């Protein structure tokens, strides 16, 4: 696959365009489904980019929407072709959160709040291994290793020489206090976190316990933003058996405002580094 072709993002853009064409035609998803003799859920999945779109699907939909401009049809057909190619993550087999990886790979910036653990993009290999093994106790060692390899590959967005991912992380103190693995491992992880926070495109803040109640108590989430204005921001909420992706402007705005409150209530960048470094020293005892 060409490095500039991200199938997840292509599906998303294509789905947005198909939704726009449907709305211009004044049709509901149910009406389109009836015309094509398919389920309404299929039309919804095509439009939200969660399902691969075949060129035949595009041809049929353009027919229903009476798209007469062949240049538009050809462009959409090419997007459908690109969307069926494989991203780098497919070489690792079945990855449960492959949609998220596709979005993260193309994102320009990522804002993360995590109340329990250090975010994957800032984890050491040893921490990732211990964390995955503990969180998924029935997972085979080979599958744990595969997940770790994917996590390490994702981190290349942080270390990239050109256009690295702009990462802003807010952590609850619990993520630093939760001893994943042994003390030496945790000390190494927290020292790594401090070092990563010194990168110009990485910001780490901590909300200490004594801050009390705050807007992040409902759980972990991430906000992805993209370089192309045509790609709307996405709120990602990880689940045990399925993940949630919120793309409506109102939803993204609510989570963005909540994130601003988290950043305001957290220790500033330098205070956070000192706080993390102090806890790292505690693990040395």
UniProtKB/TrEMBL annotation:
Pfam families: DUF5753 (PF19054), HTH_31 (PF13560). Gene3D superfamilies: lambda repressor-like DNA-binding domains. Residues 18-73 form the HTH cro/C1-type domain. It comes from the Bacteria. SUPFAM superfamilies: lambda repressor-like DNA-binding domains. This is Helix-turn-helix transcriptional regulator. It comes from Streptomyces tropicalis.
């Amino acid at each position: 696959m060409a490095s500039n072709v991200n199938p997840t993002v292509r599906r998303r853009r294509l789905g947005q365009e198909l939704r726009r064409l449907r709305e211009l035609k004044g049709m509901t998803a149910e009406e389109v489904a009836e015309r094509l003799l398919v389920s309404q859920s299929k039309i919804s999945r095509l439009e939200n980019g969660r399902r691969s779109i075949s060129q035949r699907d595009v041809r049929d939909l353009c027919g229903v929407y009476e798209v007469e401009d062949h240049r538009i049809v050809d462009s959409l057909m090419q997007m459908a072709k690109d969307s069926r190619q494989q991203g780098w993550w497919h070489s690792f087999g079945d990855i449960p959160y492959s949609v998220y990886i596709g979005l993260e790979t193309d994102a320009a910036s990522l804002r993360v709040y995590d109340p329990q653990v250090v975010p994957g993009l800032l984890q050491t290999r040893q921490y990732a291994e211990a964390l995955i093994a503990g969180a998924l106790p029935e997972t085979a060692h080979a599958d744990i290793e595969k997940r770790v390899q994917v996590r390490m590959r994702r981190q290349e967005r942080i270390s990239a020489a050109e256009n690295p991912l702009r990462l802003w992380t807010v952590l609850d103190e619990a993520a630093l206090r939760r001893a994943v693995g042994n003390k030496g491992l945790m000390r190494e992880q927290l020292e790594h976190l401090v070092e990563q926070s010194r990168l110009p495109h990485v910001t780490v803040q901590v909300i200490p316990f004594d801050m009390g109640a705050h807007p992040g108590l409902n759980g972990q989430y991430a906000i992805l933003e993209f370089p192309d204005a045509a790609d709307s921001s996405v709120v990602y909420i990880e689940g045990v058996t399925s993940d949630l992706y919120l793309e409506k402007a109102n939803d993204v705005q609510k989570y963005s405002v909540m994130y601003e409150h988290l950043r305001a209530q957290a220790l500033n960048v330098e205070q956070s580094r000192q706080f993390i470094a102090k806890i790292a020293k505690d693990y040395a005892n």
